[in-house]
Model the fold of this input.
Amino acid sequence: MRPLYWIVALGFGLLTINANPVISWPGLSPQSDPVSIPAPQPFSLQPPSQGEPLEMSRNWAGYVNSSATYTAVQATWRVPTLISNGSLAIWVGVGGAPQRRLLQAGTLTKKTAYGTKTILWIEGLPQPLKPIARNLPDGAPVHIAITHVKAARWNLTLQAGNYRQIFHVRYPLTAKSAEWIVEDPLINNKFAHFPTFHPIELFYAKAQTSTGVTVTAKQSMPIDLRIHGAIDAAPILVSNTTFAVSLPAFRP
Done:
C-alpha cells in the first residue's frame, strides 16, 4: 500500500486576507451563534477491522476524503490537554492530497516547562501560518468551517468559546480532498516533539462536494501517524461524524 507522506509546515507569518489583529483569549467580546459541543462520551478504542484500507503518514493522524471535488469542510473539538512537553496541531482543510495547495484552519498547542499555550490559526499553503487568537484555555470548544463562496473566494469561520469571526480569503483552489487531522507539526522546517495526550475527539467531521453530497469521516480513509515505523497516533471512529485520535498507550 502506498504510504502518504503529506508534510504540512506550520511556520509563523502572514496570509494575505482581510486584515485582523492577533488577540488574546481573555477579554474577547462575545459573538453570536455559540457552538454546542456534545459532552465527551465513553467509546471503545478498537483497531480497524481486518482488511480495512489504511494509509500512513509521518505527521498526520485522522481522516481524508479524496473521492470528489469539495466546497466545504467542518469539525469541532476541544483544546487538548497535553500530558508531556511537545507541540500538537488539530485542523480541518481542503486540498493537500494529492495537490500541494491546502487551505486549512485549526489550533496549535505547545507545552513546555513554562506552561501550555494554544493559538487559533489559518493557513493557505505556500503562505505561512497566520495566528488569529492566542492563549486559548485547555478544554475550550473550537469549531472550524471552511466554505467555498465563488471563484477563488472562501470563507473561514473560526469559533472558540464565545469568540467568532469569519475571514474572507482569496485563495485559488480546486479542492480534490477534505481532511480532519491531528498533526505532529513542522515548525521552522523541523518536526516538533510529539507529546503524549488523552484521546482527542473531533465532532461533526463532515464535508460537502461540488455536487452537494455530504461526506463524513466514516466514508473517508483513516490515516495512522507513524514515527520510525511504529504507530504513534491512530484514528478510531465513534460515529459517522465523530472520531477520536489516540496514542498506543490508550489502545487495548
About this structure: The chain has a mean pLDDT of 80. The chain is about 0% helix and 50% strand. The first strand starts at residue 23 and ends at 24. The radius of gyration is 17 Å.
